[in-house]
Write a structure and sequence with these properties.
By secondary structure, this protein is α+β, with helices and mostly antiparallel strands. It contains two helices and three strands.
Amino acid sequence: MKSMLVRGGAALVLAGLAVLAPTAAHATTTAAATTGAVAQETQNFTGFAYENSPKEAKREAETMARQHALLSGFLNEQCVLLYANSYRLAPGYYGANAAISCTR
């Protein structure tokens, strides 16, 4: 019984380290790529929307992407719009996709 608890604890520790490993690897590669000593993190976020006009659909899609970024801890000032595309689904009904890139 005790050996099962030790194995379970060891597995939990290894799982925790596996979760942290990609973050550490990304931080070191970004730091090596930049000339300064500050490591930067960059993430992309997407959003989609269906509205009654193409302009409204694009705005809502961008808002959704920015909300995803805010939930991940990025500020609006740290994000730039990559694209916002709209398309017609039916008369008076439009869809849109938007993507933003955030760096801190």
